[in-house]
Amino acid sequence: MAQITLDDVIAARGIIAGRLHHTPLVGSRTLSAQLGATLYLKLENLQKTGSFKTRGVLNKIAALSQAERERGLVTASAGNHAQALAWASAAEGLSCTVVMPQGAPAAKLAATRGYGGTIVLEPSTLTVFSRAQALAAEHGYIFVPPFDDPAIIAGQGTIGLEIIDDLPDVGTIIVPIGGGGLLAGVALASKLRHPRVRIVGVEPTGAAAMWRSRQAGHAMGLDQIQTIADGLAAPFAGALTFALAQEYVDDLVLVDDQAIREAMVLLLERCKLLTEPAGAAALAALLSGVVAAPPGAPVVAIVSGGNIDVLRLTQLLTAA
Q1: Catalytic positions
Q2: Among 4, 22, 131, 232, which residue has the least CB neighbours within 10 Å?
């Protein structure tokens, strides 16, 4: 299995420097008082394309040869990785095809097309990966994994470097989990820079691939997915991301959709932050009590994305 080092993450930071934002790390007096701890939010919803995904994508494209780039790129995604790959491909002058589930949010479909990506719709999230790999085999495209890839993971790990640089005394970092690329990268970079930091991963109860994998002791897939957090609805935990989570992640927890809705409302009302459900999952874990916030060292919750359309937002807020 491929090894990823802190040097790989540091190199990725150099590759994305000047092209992406060093996103804000902001405190909230209101939420800190509510939790009885010092809370900071890492605002990846303000990153280019509205999520952290561009970090890994730019690092992955930088690792491709010219011949590989000319073959065109393909991926599978519920939306945020799709947007990131379409945006980065356009910036590099490359062609990009994305397989997305038919139920993908309208805003993510529109943005992916707007960035120049060609979308292939697939009936189910459970089959988007096999369809993308079939297209790669048929057309010679280069498959760009959304999470289980060393360059992707190293790119996402740059978030960990930024957190440690901006808040050296951080005690706990809470990370939402889809396929585990964000979790693996942040955990590796943060632990190797600051060994005493506690890393907690959060999944929806209806898409708990990493949690189930830890219980089983090996990477597992899901036979059904049911969550409002489409950005966390990966159909399996990656083999590499699982191995890194086993090594560097202290705990995994689950949150239900209602807790995610309530966190979205709080972020909007109190912090004036628009997030998608996936982006509110880390805060939901704190608010629901499944993650304890120690009163000493600061806690960071990663707000992983903010790509949501008005209709979907209205539906979710009405149900909260």
Answers
A1: 53, 304
A2: 22
